[in-house]
Specification:
By secondary structure, this protein is α/β, with parallel strands linked by helices. It is about 30% helix and about 25% strand. It is built from eleven helices and twelve strands. The strands form two sheets. An eight-stranded mixed β-sheet has the order 6-7-8-3-9-10-12-11, with helices on both faces. The chain has a four-stranded antiparallel β-sheet with strand order 2-1-4-5. A hairpin with a 2-residue loop joins strand 4 and strand 5. Helix 3 packs across helix 4 and helix 3 runs parallel beside helix 5. The radius of gyration is 21 Å and the shape is globular. Bound molecules: iron/sulfur cluster. The site of iron/sulfur cluster has 13 residues, from loops.
Length: about 350
């Protein structure tokens, strides 16, 4: 059953673009290209809601995460957090806001300082934001966080290399939670972990979200990972949003041909079922983000493209059911997923 979420968005991202200049060649003969990592992305997020963000590597997911957190200044657009425009805040004001917005990184071990004890790693944000806290108060809070994420508080003086990958990710989650944030961005938090451990971390995040009424943005490169945690899913391709749909609708009847290909690419554990499913329909590789195709950025791989797609950029439009898609042909295409794919996606 779909989790109930409050209706008013806590986060509103509007027309966000992040561009980088990339220099090529020698000092004497250099050329500058503009890499449009994120290009006009808009979405909102409600309290207690999880938005899955999915796309192949290079589609701009991680850049989007950093722009939302204010770690990268956007080239254009706004990030509204509880009605305040973060993109306009000075560094000091933004730093204070960051207490409410935290991130969990992809590589659990690499993201933890190997020379610090687990206790110090989790306590560090508290020392930074509340330098006057008493040592005993901080230790009590850290031990409480360790318990909450399924670690033994008596391991407080151990070092990251003494823990498994899944335990290191629990340490990263405890550190992200220690300041009582309202939003956590999980940037591929399980992609470096074994499948069985992935499920444990996803279940932990779901439990914590329920307990703490957290809003989550959960980034992954394939749809199978986000399915079990997301209320809605945003699909990105070459810096643009292709679709934003509720989880139920997206896996059953995607609105965009790219989403349909991603759903068909979800691994199916049963080899018999896997043989029955149709091809994803995708042709070729993703073009370089340094030279985006004109028109619909997906047209070079889309099996449904028409002439218009080569020059006319499709806007992200709201459909009758409230979901969003950026495709000229959404209304005329029926991309319903037949049984074998559903079997694998479940
Ligand atoms: Fe395919 Fe055209 Fe739709 Fe793009 S706009 S997804 S190329 S049909």
């Amino acid at each position: 059953m779909k989790r109930r979420t409050e209706e008013r968005p806590v986060l509103r991202v509007q027309d966000l673009s992040v561009h980088f200049e990339v220099h090529e060649g020698s000092l004497l003969r250099s050329r500058t290209h503009v890499l449009k990592a994120v290009n006009g992305v808009s979405f909102d997020l409600r309290a207690g809601e999880t938005l899955g963000v999915v796309g192949e590597s290079g589609c701009g997911k991680s850049t989007l995460a950093r722009a939302v957190l204010g770690l990268i200044r956007p080239h254009r657009g706004r990030v509204m957090w509880l009605g305040e425009n973060l993109s306009e805040l000075e560094e000091e004001a933004l730093r204070k806001r960051r207490k409410e917005l935290q991130i969990v990184f992809q590589d659990p071990l690499a993201s933890l300082n190997p020379r610090m004890t687990v206790g110090d790693i989790i306590a560090e944000p508290l020392w930074t934001f509340f330098p006057k806290f008493a040592k005993v108060q901080v230790e009590e809070r850290v031990r409480g966080m360790m318990k909450m994420v399924g670690l033994l508080p008596n391991q407080i003086n151990r070092y990251p290399h003494e823990f498994s990958g899944g335990q290191c990710q629990r340490i990263g989650i405890a550190r992200a939670l220690v300041l009582n944030p309202k939003l956590i961005i999980c940037d591929e938090p399980v992609s470096a972990l074994d499948v069985s451990i992935q499920a444990q971390i996803i279940n932990l995040l779901k439990d914590l979200q329920k307990k703490l009424n957290l809003s989550l943005i959960f980034i992954a490169h394939d749809l199978s990972v986000v399915k079990h945690i997301s209320d809605r899913v945003m699909v990105m391709y070459l810096g643009r949003t292709m679709e934003i749909s509720t989880r139920e609708a997206l896996y059953r009847k995607p609105l965009h041909p790219y989403t349909s290909a991603l759903v068909k690419a979800v691994p199916i554990p049963d080899p018999k079922m896997a043989r029955l499913r149709p091809d994803t329909g995708l042709t070729g590789d993703m073009p370089s983000p340094l030279s985006l195709p004109p028109g619909c950025v997906f047209h070079t791989r889309c099996p449904y493209k028409v002439k218009r797609c080569q020059f006319d950029v499709p806007a992200l439009r709201r459909m009758e059911n409230g979901d969003w898609a950026a495709c000229h042909r959404t209304e005329e295409l029926d991309l319903t997923i037949s049984k074998p794919e559903n079997g694998g996606a479940d």
